[in-house]
Structure formats: structure tokens, C-alpha cells
Amino acid sequence: MVSALSPETVLQNRYRIISRLDTKPDGKAKGGMGAVYLAVDTRLSCEVAVKQTINENAELSEEMTKAFEREAKLLAILRHPSLPRVTNHFIEDNAQFLVMDLVHGNDLDDVRRDYGGWLPVELALNLADQLLAVLEYLHSHNPPVIHRDIKPSNLKLTQNGHLMLLDFGLAKGTVGLMSQHNDRSLFAMTEAYASPEQLEGEITEARSDLFSVGATFYELLTGQAPLHALTKRAFALAMRKPDPLCPIHELNMDVPVEISRIFMQALALDIENRPSSASEFRRVLGQTEIENELQTVQGDEDRTFPLFSRSESEDRLVTDTEKDLIKGIEQLRLRAERAEELVQEQRQRQEAEKRHQAESARKQREAEVARQKEIKRLKIEEAKLQEEKKRLERAIILEEAKEKKVTTWKRVGVAVLTITILGGLFWLASGLFSSVSNTASDYYGIAYNCEKEMDNDCALANFSKAIELRPDFPEAYLGRGTAYVNKGSYDDAITDYSRAIELRNAFATAYHNRGVAYARKGNFDNAIRDYNQAIELEPNDASTYHNRGLANAKKGNYEQAIKDYNRAINIKPNDAGVHVSRGVAFSKKGNIDQAIADYRMALKLDPTDKDAKNNLEVALKEQKLK
Length: 626
Fold this sequence. Notes:
Blueprint lengths: L9 E2 L3 E6 L13 E8 L4 E8 L8 H16 L8 E7 L2 E7 L4 E2 H7 L6 H19 L15 E3 L5 E3 L30 H4 L6 H17 L6 H10 L9 H4 L5 H10 L11 H10 L32 H84 L4 H27 L5 H13 L3 H14 L4 H14 L2 H14 L4 H14 L2 H14 L4 H13 L3 H14 L4 H13 L3 H14 L4 H16 L1
Antiparallel strand pairs: 1-2, 2-3, 3-4, 4-6, 5-6, 7-8, 8-9
Helix pairs in contact: 3-5, 3-9, 5-8, 6-10, 10-11, 10-12, 12-13, 13-14, 14-15, 14-16, 15-16, 16-17, 17-18, 18-19, 19-20, 20-21, 20-22, 21-22
């Protein structure tokens, strides 16, 4: 297997590797068919980007070699301000390398996250115009150059606001490089952005790229990737149900309806319903006037979005191709029905497991009640035996006083009798205690009930017992961490949440709770880092956005805090607490009118909210002073 290059590695006695460029904020590689490095061209004394093939086999496959050469030759003959320039291509140590201009900036995935989840509409339209301009150029070749992997992470925004289109590893169509009809890729496309025809392995064309443009800007304007074109949307249409893909303007009310409809048409499953070309797509976007757009939320309106002209042959009779398409959709529907059956079976198994766990917990509770009753009974019996022992001792003393003589065996006999009786009692008690054997799930169930009753000591003891019996129990670490937070032991809580994350990497709740623990300690940078990770794993959790807003507010970053509160309110509009928090942020920024509006909304949602009432009184006084 070809491994990643280390810093200071020199290739071709010319290119010195500095660091890897294609990594996420957490340091992990973003994936794909190659790795990209920052390097120095020692001959020209300039920085360049070097792309390396990453192959899981010992030898480069012929297909990977052709794909990499195709990208090199494609970029070498293309000339456009939004495309990187290729300067060299070579093979070294069973790996292929591509040398190109270094593009400074952030990919649109990172830009979107920097804006709090989605891009401003004006910026998105500017970027869409730049992307469609470069696609006009690519599609104008004969035959057209089809990119086939347009997505946010393959688009980079430079510091001067210029968009660059990267990664032509899946591209097709340049004369002399490959057959125009060889359309099946060895390397996996990103399914959320791929057109139905590409997912099915059919022939792609320029309008396939336009589908990916629509999918890309759907995520950039909503913060959510669109539904899978085949498994979700095509199945629904085959069942004669409405397209389940929610329009952009319903998820982001800042997006005008007309802009939303243009991008939604690009996402049409039928290729004939999409824009006819990148030029047409760009023209219609350019004609739309944002400032005059009515921002209304549409209900169950027609989602075919007929903005672009159709050919006059749309009323023709059903062709053999359409029959094949209908047959394919029917097969897809049958597969989807089977998948639904499997999901239902899994749900039934999960429900059965839940019932079993509930029954086990119930039996455990009953056994605990019975044990406590028996302990109480044994204590009563012990008290009686102690009293009887004292009575016998008093009788012996009286007998000695009367007769002045008592044999040793009598006293010994009484003592032995007493010890025997007590010993039997304690043996019985110890047998009772040892007769109950609990599982980790049983202790977890008891701890969960203790936690609901706010009995933190009970919760800690039982979560710890569950972990002792099952050290790889992430939910138990999560529960014990929460109990530690409730007791104010934040370092212990952070340790338990970290262990839960080690056991289950994509554990959004553990990241969120660890962020709360860091925030309670006053470590707001670490808290924000964990909230970011939780949001990446679970982007629709209002409480995480609320808590990240509180952390940003503590740092004095009220602008970012307001963005987080806005996102939380979009997800959960009826949360009075978020309105109070946003009101405080607006007040800190001097926007008293907006703060008053938020406090009033909080009181409307929860008339008993004391913070909202007190803050409103203070804000009204400040407003009068102004």
C-alpha cells in the first residue's frame, strides 16, 4: 500500500513536501482517491500543490493510472481563471503525482460552517454565477468536459472572493483521453450530490453537472445535504407521492422563493426538466431580483418548478426508453419495499429488546424491594435475639446469686446457643444478599431511574457498577458523566464523556455533554470545539446550537452567539429560553428594541419565565433613557 508522504520528503529531486492540505479541522484526511500536499518547487523557489494517488493495493491498478493521467491531461489543456494550472505529472515509488498551482483559500464546506451553517444569499448567488461560468467553458468543448464530482469540498474560495473548481478525477469527455460513452467510474462519486443517471451508471451529460450544482447550493443555503436521488426521492415518486425534497426557501426563509425554485429545478430527477445548459441556468439566476422577492413559505405547492423551456416533443407517446425507465422505477420500488420490511423487522427486534430490558428492570426492582423487606425482617429478628440473649444473661446472674454456684458448661452452653442462633441468622442474611446477581444492563436501569429522581449518589453507584461489569458500555459512561456534572465534579465528568467517545466515535450526545462540562469549568474554547463536533454529527439539535451560543456570548462574541441562537430558534421556535438568551446578546450589542422583542416572545411562550420578565423590565427602562 502507498502511504502518505512525510514532511521534508523530496520528489524528483525537485519538490520538497511541507505538509498535507486535504485534512479536516480534527486532523483526519478528507478522503477521496488522492492526497494533496503543500510543497516547494526548489528549482523555481515557489510553492505548489502536489496530488498523490492513494491506492489500497500494493500495485497501482491500470484503471487508477488511467484516471490520474486523465485528470493531468484534462487540466493541462484547459485554460480558465477558475481552474488550477497543471505543470508536471510523474510516477515515483509506485505512486502517481500531479503538480499544479497552489490555490489558497477554504473549501465551501468550511466557508458554510464559518457562516454558522449556511451562506448569505448574495454570496451564494455570486459563487453560483462563478461556478456556472466555468461550467459554460467546460461544457463548450467538443465533446463537452463533464466534471461529475461537483460538491462543496471540491470548490475553494480564495481570499479575494474567487471560486476555484478542483478534483477532475472523475471527469470525462476530452478528445483523445477516453471514450465519450465509457461512463462508469471506478471511484465512488459522492452520492448526495450525484444525479440519478450517474447513480444508476448510465451515460452522463452536461445537465448531470447542473444537478450537482443544484445539490451543492441546496446544502450551502440550508446547511443540509439533499435527499438521495434514488433511494428517497425516486421511490416516493414511483409510489405517486409528492417529492419529499423540502424546498430551499422553507428551510431558510432568507432565500427568495424564485431563487429557491431555480435551484430546485436543477435537482429535477428527470433530466429533461432541468435547465438546458449552464448558460441558461446562469442567465435565469442573473435576471432574478432578490430585493423584490416576497419571502413566503410555500405549502404543498407544485414542486416541478417549470421555469425553463421544454422541447415541443414533451407530449409524445411513451417511448421504449421511457418504458425501461418505468420498469426500472418499479424494480426500485420493490427493492425499497423490501428495504422497508427489513427496517420494520429491525424495529420490531429493537422493541422486543426494549421490552426485555424493561421487564428485567422491573424484576430487578421487585427483587430489590423483596430484599429490603427481608433485611428489615432479619434486623427485627436480630433485635429479638439480642433481647433474648440479655434475658438469658440476666437469668444466669440471678441463678448465681441464688445458688452461688454454676457450672462452666451451662454458661458455655448459653453462649454457644446464642452464637449459633445469631450465626444462623447472619448466614441466612448473607445467603440472601449473594442470591441476587445483577447484569450491567440491570444496574444501568437502576441508575437511570435514580438519575430521574435526582438521586446522584445512587446514580453514580449504579452506573459505576454497570461499568465494572461491562467496561465497554458507552451509555453507562455517558450517564455517570451526567451524574458527575450534577454534583459539580466536572473533571470526572469530562473523563467519562471522553471514554464514551472513544467507545463510540460518532457519539453526538457525548460531545454535547462534554461541551457543557467544559463550559461549566469556564473553558469555553474546548466547549465550542465539542459543540462543533456534536453539530457536525447531529445538525438539527437545537440545544447544541443554544449552548454554543451561550459559550460564544461568554467569550464576548455576541455576533456569532446570535447566529447560533437563530439556528436554534429555526429548529425549535417555541423554546422561550433561547429567546431570552438572544435578547441578552442583542442587549449587549446595544440593540435594545430587538432585545425587548425577544423578551416579549419568551414571555408569550412561557409567562412564568422570571429571567424574561426581569430582563424586559430592565430593557424598557434603558429604552426610555434613550
